[in-house]
Amino acid sequence: MSVRELVVLGTASQVPTRHRNHNGYLLRWDGEGILFDPGEGTQRQMLRAGVAAHDLNRICVTHFHGDHSLGLAGVIQRINLDRVPHEVTAHYPRSGRRFFDRLRYATAYRETVELTEAPVAADGVLAVTPSYTLEARRLSHPVESYGYRLVEPDGRRMLPDRLAAHGVKGPDVGVLQRAGRLGDVTLEDVSEVRRGQRFAFVMDTRLCDGVHALAEDCDLLVIESTFLDEDIALAVEHGHLTAGQAAAVARDAGVRHLVLTHFSQRYSDPGDFERQARAAGFEGELTVARDLLRVPVPKRR
Questions:
Q1: How many CB atoms within 10 Å of residue 129?
Q2: pLDDT tens digits along 226-283
Q3: What is the pLDDT of residues 116-172, one digit of tens each?
Q4: Could you tell me the strand order of the sheet in which 124-128 lies?
Q5: pLDDT, tens digit, 9 for 90 and up, residues 45-87
Q6: Which end of the chain is more exposed for a tag (fewer CB within 10 A), N or C?
């Protein structure tokens, strides 16, 4: 049975706290694992969450601030120590290649795994697999930053009443699905489009076109909300979002499940983020992330 869920490894902004580790998020998508923004301490958080190096197929780094990337050294070395048997691909802003190289070779170790680097230089498609298309969009932050979006291909949903009306049953249903036609009956006659699921990961950024493009029609949106609304001037100055801004983006984009994360240590009550998100008019499912939380991708519509 396929599993689609987000495993939250860390939720702190800039510095860890007693209760929040630096950033780290693993998306389980069927048989693949995509690790986003491994900050310092990610390897230990993976252990606590029951995530193994063998679970990783891709690493996506939004930008090269330490709370989003200092864990790369440990994660990469662990991938090699455990001799992960499959290729692992790393995406990161091309302008930060020197930082990736320094982290990849921070200390001596034996390379045993094929780690493929696929830097991001512009908006567009990064990878196409049978299960998803991975895209990147430029964000607005003091250093070059990209958000990531995963889109499942659309499928077809068979409609029992139409199948019955056309006399299609038993093994013929499978034949029709594979071939697209059975005699005079086409697949379009007995089915409807089943929209693929969509996931987006938006970290350090001001409001910009990239934020809205990434969030559009998402089933699950993970987005930073570093500041509360009363500190919007600080958010703009440092290239971040407030809880209300993040929720307004989700509201306008038709997001089904919103996950707020990347919280400044200046705030002690996580409930304030939820209250401000609701005040902004977001009515969908809402999660204020905490370390080691698991968030399932919503079922298809």
A1: 15
A2: 999 999 999 999 999 999 999 999 999 999 999 999 999 999 999 999 999 999 999 9
A3: 999 999 999 999 999 999 999 999 999 999 999 999 999 888 989 999 999 999 998
A4: 124-128, 133-138, 146-151, 198-202, 220-224, 257-261, 285-288
A5: 999 999 999 999 999 999 999 999 999 999 999 999 999 999 9
A6: N
Distance CA 39, CA 20 (A): 12
Q: Which amino acid is at 27?
A: L
pTM for this model (two decimals): 0.93
The yes-or-no answer on residue 204 being catalytic is: no
* Cα 4 from chain centroid (whole Å): 11
Residue 190: which pLDDT band, with cuts at 50, 70 and 90?
A: confident
Owner of token pair 């008019």: 281
H or E segment to which residue 57 belongs: none
Burial 238-276 (b: 16+ CB within 10 A, else e): bbbbbbbbbbbbbbebebbbbbbbbbbeebeebebbbeb
- Which tokens sit at 191? 């089915």
Closest CA to 124 of 95, 147, 141: 147
- 257: nearest Cα among 295, 301, 206: 295
Q: Please tell me which residue in 30, 37, 55, 67 is annotated as part of the active site.
A: 67
Take residue 249 and report the two structure tokens written for it.
């983006």
Structural element, H or E, at residue 48: helix 42-49
Task: Give the number of other Cβ atoms within 10 Å of residue 192's Cβ.
Answer: 11
Give residues with Cβ within 8 angstroms of 128, minimum separation 6: 134
In order of 92, 122, 133, 169, the CA distances from 118 in angstroms are 7, 12, 15, 46
